[in-house]
C-alpha cells in the first residue's frame, strides 16, 4: 500500500510492463534476429555468416513475385467473401438476436474449439471428389463431370474464408451492437427508407467493425500456408508455402527470413493504403 | 570452415553459452554435457531414463498406450523409456532439434530416428551433431542384414543403426483403376488425369522417375537430374498430378481422391486391413528402398542408447516389434522368430521382400540429397 501510494505516478507503467516486456521479448527480439538472419549468406553445410546480403531481398521478389501476388489475391477474395457472408449474420444477431445473442455468437466461435489443422482437414472430406458437394455441383453442371473442387484455388479460398470467418464476424457484431437504435429510428422519422437509413446511418457507424474485421482476416490469410498445402495443388501454393519449404526443407534460413520481411512490408503497405482510403479515424472508431 | 563440433568445443561452447546466453541455456548445456560420455570413454553406467523420439505408430502397441517391448526393456535393465512419437516428417523434426544442436545444447533426447533418403542423417554426421556408437555395448550388431552394413553416408555404421526400412512403389485403388504397374502409366495415362499423387520427399519421387527414364538413381548427374525434373514437370503442368503428398496420401487414396499414387509399402499393408481395394507394387523399372536410422543426438546418453539398440537387435524382440509395425526388418533371424508367432506377417512379401523384389529397388545417391541446387529446383517444382 505504502509503496504504491508514494509512487502513484509509476502505477500505469507497472501495469504496462508485462505487456511491453512480452512484446519486447517475444516480438521485437525475434524480429531483430530475423532481420539479422535475412542479411546472412552461406549454406547449411558451412554455416551462415552476416554479410549485408541485400541480394536475398532482390531474389525473394524476383523469383517469387507470383507467389506474393497469389497470396494477396486469395487473401483479398477470402476477406471480401467473409465480409459479405458475415455482415448479414452479425447484423441479424445484433438487432434480432434477442435473448439468443450469446448462443448465436457461440455458434460462430464454435469451430474454434477444434484445432486449425483438423478444421482444414475436414474440408478435405467436405470437398472430396466423391463427396456430396462435388456430386451435387456436377449434377447442377456447375462443376464439369469428372471435375473437382479439391486441389484447386476455389478450395483454398473456401478454406481460408471458413477458417478466418470469426475474425470478421465478431468485430462486425461488436460495432453493430453498439449502434444506438434511436439513431436509426430518427432517420426513419425523417423520411429515410429502411434501405436509406441503413446506407446513411447503420453502415457508416459499423465501419470501424468492417475495418477491424477486414484487417484481422486479411493479414493472417495473406501469410497462411496450411490451406494451400492441404486443399490446393502445387499451382495454388502461396508465399507461406515457399517460406515453409525454404526454412524446413532447404534449410535456407536467410532466404526464408528475407521473404518473411518482404511479406510483412507488403502487408504493411496494403494496410496503410487501405487505412488511407477509408480514413484513419475509422480504425479507432 | 567445417562446422564439425568436437566434444571439447561442445563443452567450451556450453561454458561460454552460460556467460552470454541464458541461465536455462547453461543448465541445458551442462545437463547434456554431464550426461554424455562420448565414444570409447563411454561410462558403462545406465541412465535412469532413456528419452526416445520416434515416428508415430512405429513400435509395438497395446491398448492403454503400452509398448510391451519397452516394458520388457525396463524389466530387464531397470531403465524407463520415455517414448515420444514426435517425429512426423524429417524436415520438421530437424528444424525442431536444430536450434539446440547448433548452439551446443542437448536436445533432451537420447535416441532419434531419421530417414536416410532425406538429407538429415548425413547432415547430422557431417555437422558433428550425433554421438558415435559404443559398439562394445551392441554385440547384436552381428544380426544386421548384410545389405545394410555399409551405407555410403555412414560406411561402417559408426553413428547409426537401422530401425526399419520401407520400399517406395505405386499404390492404387482397384475400384477406380486397372493395375498401375509403371511410372509411364502413372504419369501419362489419361484415365488417371488429376487423380495421381507423387511424394513430396525429393528422394522417393526422383529415384522412381530416374529409374523409369532409364537412368541410375544411385549416381545422380546434372543431366539425369534435369531429365527427371523435366519428366515430372510435364506431368504437373498437364494436370496429371494432383498434388505432392507426405504421409497424407493414404487418406486421399482410400477416399478415392487419388486413383493411383506413389506410396510406401508398410502404409499399404496397414491400410489394406481396412480397405481391400488398395494394391501396391514396385514399378516395372524399379522402386526405391529407404531406411529409418536410430541416431544418438549430441548430448544423449550413448551407453544407455546402445544397450537399447542391442536389445532391439535381438531377433525375438525385433520379431515382436515387426509383428505390429509391418515395415521391413533389418534384423537377421526376426523372420524365423516371427514364423512362430505370426506366420501371415512372416510370409508377407511387403514385410519380408523376396530377393527378386530387393533386386528391383534402388538406393538414391546420398550426395544428391545434400546438393542445394537440386533441392532448390525440387522445392520450386513442388511449390510452383
Topology:
The complex is a heterodimer of chains A (285) and B (384).
Chain A: H1 2-6, H2 11-38, E1 40-43, E2 47-50, H3 55-96, H4 101-109, H5 116-126, H6 132-139, H7 153-177, H8 181-189, H9 194-222, H10 226-231, H11 239-248, H12 253-278, H13 281-284
Antiparallel strand pairs in A: 1-2
Chain B: H1 7-20, H2 23-35, E1 49-55, H3 68-77, E2 80-87, H4 90-102, E3 112-115, H5 120-126, E4 160-173, H6 183-188, E5 196-199, H7 202-212, H8 222-237, E6 241-245, H9 249-255, E7 260-264, H10 265-272, E8 278-281, E9 287-295, H11 302-312, H12 315-325, H13 334-341, H14 343-346, H15 355-359, E10 361-362, H16 366-369, H17 372-382
Parallel strand pairs in B: 1-2, 5-6, 5-7, 9-10
Antiparallel strand pairs in B: 3-9, 4-7, 4-8, 4-9
Helix pairs in contact in B: 1-2, 12-13
**Helicity level of chain A, as a percent range?**
over 70%
Report the portion of residues of chain A in β strands.
under 5%
Number of domains of chain B: 2
Return the average pLDDT of chain B rounded to an integer. Answer: 87
* Number of individual domains of chain A: 1
Give the topology string of chain B: H per helix, E per strand: HHEHEHEHEHEHHEHEHEEHHHHHEHH
Model regions low in confidence, pLDDT < 50 over at least 5 residues of chain B = 1-41
Mean of residue pLDDT of chain A? 91
Gap between N and C termini of chain B? 34 Å
Q: How is the CATH topology of chain A named?
A: MetI-like fold
Notes on the structure:
The complex is a heterodimer of chains A (285) and B (384). By secondary structure, chain A is mainly alpha-helical. Chain A has helices at 2-6, 11-38, 55-96, 101-109, 116-126, 132-139, 153-177, 181-189, 194-222, 226-231, 239-248, 253-278, 281-284, and strands at residues 40-43, 47-50. The longest helix of chain A has 42 residues, at 55-96. Chain B folds into two domains: 7-165 and 292-353, 3-Layer(aba) Sandwich (D-Maltodextrin-Binding Protein, domain 2), CATH 3.40.190; 166-289 and 360-382, D-Maltodextrin-Binding Protein, domain 2 (3-Layer(aba) Sandwich), CATH 3.40.190. Residues 1-41 of chain B have low confidence and may be disordered. The two termini of chain B are 34 Å apart. Chain B has 384 residues and is α/β, with parallel strands linked by helices. Chain B is 41% helix and 16% strand. The longest helix of chain B has 16 residues, at 222-237. Classes of the chains: A mainly alpha (285), B alpha/beta (384). The interface between A and B is medium-sized, with 32 and 33 residues.
Amino acid at each position: 500500500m505504502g509503496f504504491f501510494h508514494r509512487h502513484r505516478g509509476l502505477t500505469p507503467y507497472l501495469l504496462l510492463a508485462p505487456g511491453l516486456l512480452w512484446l519486447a521479448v517475444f516480438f521485437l527480439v525475434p524480429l531483430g534476429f530475423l532481420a539479422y538472419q535475412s542479411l546472412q549468406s552461406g549454406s547449411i553445410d558451412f554455416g551462415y555468416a552476416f554479410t549485408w546480403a541485400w541480394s536475398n531481398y532482390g531474389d525473394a521478389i524476383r523469383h517469387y513475385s507470383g507467389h506474393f501476388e497469389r497470396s494477396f489475391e486469395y487473401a483479398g477474395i477470402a476477406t471480401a467473401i467473409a465480409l459479405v457472408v458475415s455482415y448479414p449474420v452479425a447484423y441479424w444477431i445484433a438487432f434480432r438476436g434477442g435473448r439468443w445473442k450469446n448462443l448465436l455468437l457461440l455458434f460462430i466461435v464454435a469451430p474454434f474449439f477444434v484445432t486449425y489443422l483438423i478444421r482444414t482437414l475436414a474440408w478435405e472430406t467436405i470437398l472430396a471428389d466423391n463427396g456430396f458437394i462435388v456430386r451435387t455441383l456436377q449434377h447442377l453442371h456447375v462443376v464439369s463431370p469428372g471435375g473437382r473442387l479439391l486441389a484447386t484455388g476455389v478450395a483454398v479460398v473456401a478454406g481460408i474464408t471458413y477458417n478466418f470467418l470469426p475474425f470478421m464476424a465478431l468485430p462486425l457484431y461488436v460495432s453493430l451492437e453498439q449502434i444506438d437504435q434511436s439513431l436509426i429510428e430518427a432517420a426513419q422519422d425523417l423520411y429515410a427508407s429502411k434501405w436509406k437509413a441503413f446506407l446513411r446511418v447503420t453502415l457508416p457507424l459499423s465501419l470501424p467493425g468492417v475495418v477491424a474485421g477486414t484487417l484481422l482476416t486479411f493479414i493472417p490469410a495473406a501469410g497462411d500456408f496450411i490451406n494451400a498445402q492441404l486443399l490446393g495443388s502445387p499451382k495454388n501454393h502461396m508465399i507461406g508455402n515457399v517460406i515453409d519449404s525454404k526454412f524446413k526443407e532447404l534449410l535456407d534460413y536467410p532466404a526464408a527470413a528475407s521473404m518473411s520481411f518482404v511479406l510483412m512490408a507488403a502487408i504493411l503497405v496494403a494496410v496503410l493504403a487501405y487505412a488511407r482510403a477509408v480514413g484513419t479515424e475509422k480504425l479507432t472508431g | 570452415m567445417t562446422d564439425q563440433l568436437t566434444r571439447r568445443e561442445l563443452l567450451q561452447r556450453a561454458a561460454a553459452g552460460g556467460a552470454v546466453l541464458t541461465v536455462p541455456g547453461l543448465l541445458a548445456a551442462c545437463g547434456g554435457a554431464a550426461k554424455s560420455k562420448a565414444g570409447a570413454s563411454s561410462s558403462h553406467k545406465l541412465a535412469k531414463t532413456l528419452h526416445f523420439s520416434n515416428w508415430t505408430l512405429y513400435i509395438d502397441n497395446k491398448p492403454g498406450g503400452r509398448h510391451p517391448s519397452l516394458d520388457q526393456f525396463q524389466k530387464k535393465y531397470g531403465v524407463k523409456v520415455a517414448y515420444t512419437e514426435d517425429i512426423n516428417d524429417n524436415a520438421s523434426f530437424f528444424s525442431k532439434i536444430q536450434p539446440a544442436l547448433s548452439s551446443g545444447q542437448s536436445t533432451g533426447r537420447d535416441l532419434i530416428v531419421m530417414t536416410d533418403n532425406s538429407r538429415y542423417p548425413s547432415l547430422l554426421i557431417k555437422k558433428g551433431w550425433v554421438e558415435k556408437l559404443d559398439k562394445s555395448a551392441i554385440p547384436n550388431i552381428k544380426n544386421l542384414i548384410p545389405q545394410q552394413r555399409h551405407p555410403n553416408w555412414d560406411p561402417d555404421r559408426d553413428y547409426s543403426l537401422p530401425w526399419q526400412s520401407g520400399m517406395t512403389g505405386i499404390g492404387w485403388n482397384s475400384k477406380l483403376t486397372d493395375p498401375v504397374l509403371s511410372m509411364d502409366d502413372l504419369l501419362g495415362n489419361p484415365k488417371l488425369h488429376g487423380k495421381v499423387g507423387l511424394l513430396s520427399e525429393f528422394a522417393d519421387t526422383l529415384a522412381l522417375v530416374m529409374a523409369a527414364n532409364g537412368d541410375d538413381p544411385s549416381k545422380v548427374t546434372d543431366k539425369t537430374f534435369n531429365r527427371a525434373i523435366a519428366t515430372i514437370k510435364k506431368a504437373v503442368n498437364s494436370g496429371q498430378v494432383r498434388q505432392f503428398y507426405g504421409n497424407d496420401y493414404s487418406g486421399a487414396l482410400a477416399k478415392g481422391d487419388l486413383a493411383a499414387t506413389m506410396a510406401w509399402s508398410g502404409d499399404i499393408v496397414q491400410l489394406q486391413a481396412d480397405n481391400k481395394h488398395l494394391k501396391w507394387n514396385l514399378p516395372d523399372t524399379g522402386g526405391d528402398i529407404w531406411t529409418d536410422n536410430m541416431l544418438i543426438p549430441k548430448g544423449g546418453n550413448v551407453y544407455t542408447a546402445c544397450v537399447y539398440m542391442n536389445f532391439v537387435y535381438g531377433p525375438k524382440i525385433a520379431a515382436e516389434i515387426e509383428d505390429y509395425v509391418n515395415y521391413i526388418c533389418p534384423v537377421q533371424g526376426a523372420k524365423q522368430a516371427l514364423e512362430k508367432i505370426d506366420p501371415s506377417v512372416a510370409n508377407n512379401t511387403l514385410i519380408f521382400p523376396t530377393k527378386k523384389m530387393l533386386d528391383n529397388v534402388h538406393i538414391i545417391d546420398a550426395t544428391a540429397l545434400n546438393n542445394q541446387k537440386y533441392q532448390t529446383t525440387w522445392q520450386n517444382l513442388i511449390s510452383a
